[in-house]
Amino acid sequence: MDDDIHAPTVASGPTSGAMPRDLSKLSMPDLMQEKERIEAELSALSSVLDTHGVTMNSTLTTFDGFPRDDIDIAQVRTTRVRIIHLRNDHKEVMSHLEKAVHEHFARLQNAPEAVITNGSTVPSQAPAPATENNNADAGTLARPFAKVNSVELRSPADQAGLKTGDSIRGFGDIHWLNHERLSKVAETVQQNEGRPLLVKVTRKNESGPGTTELNLQLTPRRNWGGRGLLGCHLVPL
Questions:
Q1: Is the pLDDT of residue 199 over 50?
Q2: Of the candidates 122, 102, 101, which has an alpha carbon nearest to the alpha carbon of residue 112?
Q3: Three-class SS of residue 165?
Q4: Which residues contact 225 (CB under 8 A, 6 or more apart)?
Q5: Cα dihedral 157, 162, 168, 171 sign
Q6: Which of 17, 14, 74, 12 is nearest to 43 (CA)?
Q7: Which of 37, 106, 124, 199 has its CA 20 to 30 A from that of 181?
Q8: Region of residue 157 (phi > 0: left; psi between -120 and 50: alpha; otherwise: beta)
Q9: β-sheet bridge partners, residue 117
């Protein structure tokens, strides 16, 4: 029997909008995995629409009300429905992620302050024992979301100390939860021309294994002699 030509050409998860697991019981790394899974499927389904030359809002009928014969209308409709479900799932995952981030920072703020004794930093109280989930959450919070692909000589990025191969963990207020495939980074750059932005970077050590975490001040500006406000090219991870 021939394949159903109306079926979506990419694999999909549950056909309902319900999440497969109780998100409130997932750790931050698990929530991040769920977020990435949904975003990957959304990207694949968007490609299906692209092959038909339509968007979520394109009309499926001709000017006189007849179904268009240049696209597979059944497939487009099925794909659109799946995208709507996935967008709702994505909102729910992001809500749980944001809640987990707030709770993590609340724990950090309530942690006992340290005092300096004889040149050594000593907690004023014994810290709470580390757990696997706490360590994983802390690592997820610092997760890089972009990589520096190139840096132009004498550009704002070059003067700030940014180097090719650096991983970006923070760009102003932008982090892995809200960068939206770097579109928010572009908005932040445009809105902060002439104002310094804190850029958190992870860089591989040149002299050996391991990495170094850096906080750089990057000021977007024009007329530095090249294109753009930064003079560097970032790619999402």
A1: yes
A2: 122
A3: coil
A4: 154, 155
A5: negative
A6: 12
A7: 106
A8: alpha
A9: 120
* Structure tokens given for 199: 């850029």
pLDDT digits (tens, 9 = 90+) for 39-61: 889 989 999 999 999 999 989 98
Tokens encoding 39: 């975003």
Cα four-point dihedral sign 22, 24, 30, 35: positive
- The string over 189-216, giving b where at least 16 C-beta atoms fall within 10 Å of a residue's C-beta and e elsewhere, is beeeeeeebebbbbbeeeeeeeeeeeeb
Q: Comparing C-alpha atoms, which of 41, 4, 49, 6 is closest to residue 20?
A: 41
Beta bridge partners of 171: 174, 199
Provide the 3-class DSSP secondary structure of residue 77. Answer: helix
- Asked which of 93-97, 189-193, 200-204, 223-227 is least confident by mean pLDDT, the reply is 93-97
- For residue 56, what are the contacts with CB-CB under 8 A and spacing of at least 6? 49, 80, 83
pTM: 0.50
Whole-number Cα distances in Å, 111 to 106, 108, 114, 116, 135: 9, 5, 9, 16, 15
Structure tokens at 70: 């240049």
Name the helix (H) or strand (E) containing 236: strand 232-236
Q: Which residues of 55-67 are buried (b: 16+ CB within 10 A; e: fewer)?
A: eeeeeeeeeeeee
